[in-house]
Amino acid sequence: MNFLSRLKILPRWIIASLDSLILFHCALFGYLVRFNFELELIEQYDAFAGSFTFMIGGLLVMQNTRSYEGIVRHTGFRDGSNIFKTVLINFILFLFLNFFHGSFLNDKFLLPTSVLIVASLSAMFMLIFYRLLVKELFVYLKNGFAQKDLRHGVIFGAGEAGIIAQEAIKNDSKSQMNIVAFLDDDTKKDGKNIDGKRIYKGLDDLEKLVKQFNITELIIAVRDLSVHRKNEIIDECLRLNVSVSMVPPVDQWINGGLTAGAIREIKIEDLLSREQIILDNPRIEQDLKDKVVMVSGAAGSIGSELCRQISYYHPKLIVMLDIAESPLYDIEQEFREQHPNCAIKIVLGDVKNKKKMKEIFKEFKPQVVFHAAAYKHVPMMENYPEEAVHANVIGTKILADLSVLSQVEKFVFVSTDKAVNPTNVMGASKRAAEMYVQALNEYLEANHKKYHTRFITTRFGNVLGSNGSVIPLFKKQILNGGPISVTHPDITRYFMTIPEACQLVLEAGVMGEGGEIFVFDMGEPLKILDLAKKMIQLSGKKVDVDIKIQFTGLREGEKLYEELLNDFETVKITHHPKIKIAQVQTSSYHRIDGQIEFFHELIGKNNETDLVRHLKSLVPEYISNSSRFEVLDRMN
């Protein structure tokens, strides 16, 4: 038995030998049936010679169909069809030989036709049956004799994906899971069986199954499952302390076949309270193909993904600008290896350096600019307001002004929902930058109607997995054994994935005619406390037992919830139901230009109070929260 449990693949010669023996005995069985098991008649017709001939003919056909090359423990429909082809060709071959013998040699048939029919039908049955028998034997040896404790699991989804997932787990010698049941929302499947496993309706019986079979895992194997239903399944599993994993989309299966190793754990991106936003606008390629595209902040989470997505639209050159040396080197190496046909130019530079930026525009003459460079960490910028204003406001003005002078076609500015009714320096600085590019676009439209750079703004919430976001922080804290630090039990945030954010930026570049602020319908905001709890549970830990949650209090400038529009803004719909345009009251270009220029006099004087006071005069809706700058609001 130990030898059999170690034997994973039967050699081809064993399969060919077994097939030959089956062909011989099926022919012999055909003779027995034909002559009612009368041995004297069988001997007269030389049954052994006929059976041997039938076996030799089958072996010759097998050399052509290669039906013996399949891995028996992975026998499936294709193997069955291959066996059917082998038997059918052999049947036709002997029909022809019988006709030849009878018509031209005036000899008796090699095999009586009735024997040939019985032999062929029984051979097809036995060849498939013994393969399935061996397949089940391997499963039995794996589950019955292997010295390991099998985990019990269920599959949610009794459709094609669920069946394939069950087969992949069943046939994987390394898998330590035993599927005991299926769950499905289709009431017509309730009570039926797949491979001996009963199908139960929805989640109704999950708790009962957990207790009955000690289930520890659930695999979601449903195509096009709604986010709402997915969250219901995950929540129920977390309540019952059952691990959740998912079958990946079909287009991600390697070589068209699913393996047990491809079934992945639930990612935090799967917990978004809305459907994933997918954009596919053919105009993007028209706008970017054969053009010089510059991306500032190209080494950051958004900037680097922007570069990756832009590369698919065949630009003439991507100019990757960033001040961060090491991450910029990393993205360069990535492109050299994974996008060797995409022309790139790595530029180490600071958007605050006007002289350097002027040289870059003069050398590369970009036609489209995506401005993603910014300081974004709220507490740090609250401590260094001068740096926030210098990079986020003046840096944006420098790039915007140079884009106009260089006749850039489009300038797409990446903003944030923290710019809406800002409560911190970072959000206020981004709002000031929004105001400038929008006022500049309005000024150009009024005074340079024939041709001018079109300025477009995109505004979205927190990006899952981006540098410095809460998700990587929580993951790190969980790996370290906790505690997880949450600032406030009621704090909420809007979330989107990095690809979604970058799709919005590219789509805005195409849709934008100039002056718009594009916002996403990002669904319902997520409660950070709930997010932390789910991340702990999805990692296989228990909240407040294995990993504790610690409330640290709101940080400087932080607010409990974010907004996508302020009190004075309305939205206008677009061709895409998930994308809207904020109707924002614009400012006078000359006024805001003068106010931003005044920052140059304040920077370097080491007087943060005057700097923030001026920022508040520029952005009237900026009211500080949990910050030392609240005193300035009380003075007004």
Automatic annotation (TrEMBL):
Give the top-rank taxon of the lineage listed in the UniProt record for this protein.
Answer: Bacteria
Entry protein name: NDP-sugar epimerase, includes UDP-GlcNAc-inverting 4,6-dehydratase FlaA1 and capsular polysaccharide biosynthesis protein EpsC
The Polysaccharide biosynthesis protein CapD-like domain sits at 293-582
- Sorted alphabetically, which keywords does the UniProt record give? Membrane, Transmembrane, Transmembrane helix
Q: PANTHER family of this UniProt entry?
A: POLYSACCHARIDE BIOSYNTHESIS PROTEIN EPSC-RELATED, UDP-N-ACETYLGLUCOSAMINE 4,6-DEHYDRATASE
Q: Where are the transmembrane segments?
A: 12-33, 45-62, 83-103, 109-133
> What's this protein's family per the entry?
Belongs to the polysaccharide synthase family.
Species of the source: Algoriphagus alkaliphilus
InterPro entries assigned: NAD(P)-bd_dom_sf (IPR036291), Polysac_CapD-like (IPR003869), Polysaccharide_Synthase-Rel (IPR051203)
Q: Which residues form a coiled coil?
A: none
